[in-house]
């Protein structure tokens, strides 16, 4: 199974649907809206004048949001269609940015070893990678001494629960077999996709932390959050631009964020 080509075709199909969707709201972004969550901006800190690489950047909205905050940004994605849209949006916004089409595992060679103060990866990215150890080694190779990795991601724990209530154990947390999905629509809705098959890889929180540590990066924090960006379970309620478990009910970790630093002085 060539997971890379299957997923590339799937994501190429998603690009025009995403660009025209209310979910991504490209026109709103061009007008000044930021897709970055407040906790991301707070945890990453001031990016003015810092070199930031965004791995698996898709159509580049998060990448360009960091550019608006003063970072010198480079985005990388394996979908040429997504990169073309990212370049177009950057031009419309008048934002300086570099976008590269490449496999994430080739990022160090394509973007430059030891060239970045920050490597950023946003929500929904890690499930597309079969090998977190190799990914973390790639991140470490990109970072300058004293630079850091920042991850904002969906927590893996909710993936084992039933979709209706989030109250019943339904899946095996430790199942690491590739998951093949055939879905006619992407998560933004819209028209049917031309290529509907995708391959995803589940990773536990321990898998992520262990891979980062094995690559020589020192974890500064791992924060688990009780909110998410979409209605993961029917019982979640809209709150503060996201979704939470109703007040009074036992809470679950729905997202997490991690920051890990490379050795040496910046």
TrEMBL record:
User: Does the keyword Transferase feature in the UniProt annotation?
Assistant: yes
Q: What is this protein called?
A: Class I SAM-dependent methyltransferase
**GO biological processes:** methylation
Q: Which GO terms describe its molecular function?
A: methyltransferase activity
CDD domains, per the entry: AdoMet_MTases
Q: Which domain of life is it from?
A: Bacteria
SUPFAM superfamilies recorded: S-adenosyl-L-methionine-dependent methyltransferases
Q: Where is the Methyltransferase type domain?
A: 55-149
